[in-house]
Amino acid sequence: MVRPFRRLSLVLALAGALLAPAARADAPHTVLTIGLSQFPSNFNPLIENMVAKSYVLGMALRPFTVYDSHWRLVCMLCTRLPTLENGLAVKETGPDGRPGVAITYTIQPKATWGDGVPVTTADVKFTWEVGRDPRTGIADAEMFRRIRAIDIKDDKTFTLHVSRLTFDDNAINDFQLLPAHLETRAFTDPAQYRTRSLYDTDTTNPGLYFGPYRITQVVRGQYVVLEPNPTWWGRKPAFARIVVRSIDSTPALEAALLSGGVDMIAGEVGFTLDAALAFQTRHRPEWRVIYKPGLSYEHISLNLDNPILADRRVRQALLLALDRETMMHQIFQDHQRVADGPVNPLDWCYDPKVKHYAYDPAAAARLLDDAGWKTGPDGLRRNARGQPLAFEIMTTAGLRNREVMEMVVRQEWRRLGIAVSIRNQPARVFFSQSVLRHAFPGAAMFAWISAPESVPRAMLASDMVPGPDNNFAGENVTGYSNPRMDALLNAIEVELDKNKRGALWRQLQALYAEDLPALPLTFRSDPFVLPAWLDGVEPTGDQYPTTLWVENWFVKQVK
After folding, report:
1. Per-residue pLDDT reduced to its tens digit, 424-440
2. pLDDT tens track for 395-425
3. How confident is residue 220, by pLDDT bands cut at 50, 70 and 90?
4. Which of 215, 265, 328, 380 qualifies as a FRET site for 527, CA 20 to 30 Å off?
5. What is the CATH number of the domain that holds 330?
């Protein structure tokens, strides 16, 4: 059920504003309070990918490499980006006779954990051991498994021996360091590591962080406080404290902004687009709104273990039954475009000729008839055994855009004779317990956020289905398995010729459009609502949050 305004949630959110840390009246703009619509399910940088966590940890940690706002690969924790041209990446043949690569990185000389212990290659070696152990349930375990060995040159320099030579082999963005001197004990039993990690049992331990800020207080489900890290090697951050508040409904988030409970709304996981558009019409000079089109793919994942949804004809019918163009116009005022698959038109590898499912309820009805789902006297479809065509859809509770889209989707499927029930959950429960555990029974509406030319192995490869056997690593939450897709994913990664790789990308998009493991909805345009006095925030449009450059944020001088 859509709840456009929940008075109880608003009361609780405003009560939370009174309890959360606030800026001192005599020190304006020394404290920055940020509103998010989610709260991290955990704080370990390697376990479970969630936007809210990436946003918070972006202020407290740094990846070795990352794509910046211009979608260029740059060094953050490393000193120089390795390439074949500069000799820091060297082709080699692995023990299995296949082509691989040796890549050498040097850690920033002054990088130091918040407790004063230097960031060293010991942390690199330990992180690799955690990441490659199948019992730990690391989100990007495939990256760690491909690193067959690490040579330690000295405390700051190391060489990764990677078993495959890929077009993006120097992009180790997900190799997020763990502090070996603190986390080794938690890793004694790898199968229990995800629950024993200090990132969850002792989240405010300063030794867990080496970014410009460190986490100093956490109230689960409500807010996180960050303060400057005295061991940070880079530019001094501008704020004495940053408070990140979680407010899980759009009206309450706006109320907190207007009341001064928050100074800004994060674009990565904050206002829905319609809320930002409505807010902007009020012409409030205290804030400015930036709309950033990006690589956020909003879709409906389908659990292919469900016998109803395992039939490709049913999946195609479900998409044909959705008037997505009208949905984008009425809900988003045409600020977002309909998606035809996971590859964004902003990315060079997008195929403009990929199959488009235009609104065609008659064609959808024919597909369902062919699949054996006939309409009964009550208007509902049933198969020959009398089983109704019925399943459940879920999404993040409190996000108005998604709840409205969910209602429209249910109505349009109901016209086709499909019974759909709604059961939404708070974001931290929805992602950690339902989506990322392949535990939703029918359909789940959410977004994948990717990097430029990001090979979707984690969400499409057969061996990436999360389950007990891999401790719920991997992000193929639909359970999709197609040998042709596996072959394309492998081929794209190792093809260094851009033109040949483009042809493979076109084949991948065509296969995805035919199989539809998920139903494409839209590519998001994220609204950043910033106070007029804040500058330096530069939206990236990809999966890497603005907070990775938080040390560049500053307070404008008032003239």
Report:
1. 999 889 988 999 899 99
2. 999 888 899 999 999 999 999 999 999 999 9
3. very high
4. 215
5. 3.10.105.10
CA distance 533 to 314: 52
| Phi and psi torsions of 539, nearest 5° | -60, 145
Q: How confident is the model at residue 470 (pLDDT cuts 50, 70, 90)?
A: confident
Q: Which residue has the higher pLDDT, 347 or 142?
A: 347
388 lies in some domain: yes
Distance CA 380, CA 421 (A): 14
Give the other-Cβ count within 10 Å of 340's Cβ. Answer: 22
Q: Are residues 166 and 301 in the same domain?
A: no
DSSP class of residue 548 equals G
Which phi and psi (to 5°) does residue 351 adopt? -100, 110
In a domain, 418, yes or no: yes
Instruction: Tell me the Cα Rg of the chain.
Output: 24
Contacts of 185 (CB under 8 A, 6+ apart): none
Residue type, 206: P
Q: Which residues contact 284 (CB under 8 A, 6 or more apart)?
A: none
> Which CATH number fits the domain that encloses residue 153?
3.90.76.10
Residue that is last in its domain, among 122, 154, 182: 182
Task: Determine contact, residues 160/170, Cβ cutoff 8 Å.
Answer: no
What are the C-alpha distances in Å from 219 to residues 183, 260, 555? 22, 20, 27
Q: In whole angstroms, give the CA distance from residue 542 to residue 545.
A: 8
Secondary-structure breakdown of the chain: helix, strand, coil percentages, each rounded to the nearest 5: 30, 20, 45
**Lowest-confidence region among 26-40, 85-99, 218-232:** 26-40
C-alpha to C-alpha distance for 14 and 244, rounded to whole angstroms: 15
Q: In this structure, are residues 518 and 301 in contact, taking their beta carbons and an 8 Å threshold? A: yes
What lies within 8 Å, CB to CB, of 260 at 6+ separation is none
Q: How far apart are CA 328 and CA 522, in angstroms?
A: 8
The pLDDT confidence band at residue 1, using thresholds 50, 70 and 90, is: very low
